[in-house]
């Protein structure tokens, strides 16, 4: 009985140490995450192997694992930039991105876990200033939003691709101009729209007038041709045809006496 406590104490101590070692060595990586291993006595960050995947892992207690989100992420950025004529423009954008999984070790070694603040956001701000500076407020307000969105994406992508970051999309959600400039642009656009409507009405009226003129000219030409074709002989033949049709009618009594100046029979009466 006296020996039991002496045996139990080392066992209990060993179990405690084992539990501590297991707790320090056990790493669980959740869905959408990956781990970068840092070997304290083995050369530091492991860059020549793929990062640790999802699930449960055991590592030496003196090593560390840095966990990164490797799914697509989104950050929002509000920026103040200048247009081509020096006016201040407010730009709201969202950026879709993810770290390049196979290069996660390099990303951690060179940029660290704060890579979004250190690399991505400064790059997007620089690209936005460069792109917006090429356009006037009128272009930004009316027709060039898609263009600046695509250009910001391309300029940002060229830089972050070499920084182990995959850029998926840049979305320009809002472009805010100074109120006085916005009102002036809206007035100008309204005037241009009214001018286009007036020009359309003029063109429509002109086409309608041309149509009426053409129709009238066509009728005049037709009458001219008809008049030229109605000779005395043709009129006399048509008169004879009409007289014969009247004579054949069951409801008519026709008396023909002599002829008129044109040589046609005279119809004196009928019932």
Walkthrough of the structure:
The chain contains 7 helices and 10 strands. The protein has 271 residues and is α+β, with helices and mostly antiparallel strands. The chain has 4 domains: 3-69, no CATH class; 73-177, 2-Layer Sandwich (Tetrahydropterin Synthase, Chain A); 184-229; 233-267, no CATH class. A hairpin with a 5-residue loop joins strand 6 (73-82) and strand 7 (88-99). Helix 3 (115-132) packs across helix 5 (145-160). The longest helix has 51 residues, at 179-229.
Descriptive terms for the model:
alpha+beta; 4 domains; 3-stranded antiparallel β-sheet; Tetrahydropterin Synthase, Chain A; 7 helices; 10 strands; 271 residues; 51% helix
The SSE order reads HEEEEEEEHHHHEHHEE
Low-confidence stretches: none
Largest sheet: 3 strands, antiparallel
The oligomeric status of these chains comes to single chain
Q: Give average pLDDT, whole number.
A: 80
How many H/I helical runs?
A: 7
CATH topology type of the largest domain: Tetrahydropterin Synthase, Chain A
Beta content: 15-25%
At the first level of CATH, the class of the largest domain is Alpha Beta
CA radius of gyration is 47 Å
Proportion in helices: 40-55%
Distance between the termini: 157 Å
Tell me, briefly, the overall form: elongated
Please give the number of β-strands.
10
> How many separate domains?
4
Structural class: alpha+beta
Q: Please list the strands of the largest sheet in the order they lie side by side.
A: 3-2-5
> How would you name the CATH homologous superfamily of the largest domain?
Band 7 domain
At CATH level 2, the architecture of the largest domain is 2-Layer Sandwich
């Amino acid at each position: 009985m006296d020996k039991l406590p002496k045996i139990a104490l080392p066992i209990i101590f060993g179990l405690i140490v084992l539990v501590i070692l297991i707790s320090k060595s056990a790493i669980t990586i959740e869905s959408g995450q990956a781990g970068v291993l840092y070997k304290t006595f083995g050369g530091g960050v492991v860059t020549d192997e793929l990062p640790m995947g999802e699930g449960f892992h055991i590592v030496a207690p003196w090593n560390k694992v840095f966990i990164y989100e490797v799914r697509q992420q989104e950050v929002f950025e509000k920026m103040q930039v200048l247009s081509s004529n020096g006016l201040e423009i407010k730009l709201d954008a969202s950026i879709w991105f993810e770290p390049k999984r196979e290069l996660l070790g390099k990303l951690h070694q060179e940029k660290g876990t704060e890579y979004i603040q250190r690399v991505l956001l400064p790059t997007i701000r620089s690209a936005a200033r460069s792109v917006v500076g090429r356009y006037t407020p009128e272009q930004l307000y009316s027709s060039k939003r898609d263009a600046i969105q695509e250009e910001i994406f391309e300029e940002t992508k060229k830089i972050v691709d070499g920084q182990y970051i995959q850029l998926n999309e840049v979305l320009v959600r809002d472009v805010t101009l100074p109120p006085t400039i916005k009102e002036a642009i809206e007035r100008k656009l309204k005037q241009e729209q009214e001018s286009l409507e007036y020009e359309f009405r003029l063109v429509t009226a002109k086409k309608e007038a041309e149509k009426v003129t053409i129709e009238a000219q066509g009728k005049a030409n037709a009458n001219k041709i008809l008049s030229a074709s109605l000779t005395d002989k043709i009129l006399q033949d048509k008169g004879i045809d009409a007289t014969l049709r009247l004579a054949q009618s069951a409801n008519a009594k026709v008396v023909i006496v002599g002829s008129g100046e044109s040589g046609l029979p005279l119809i004196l009466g009928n019932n």
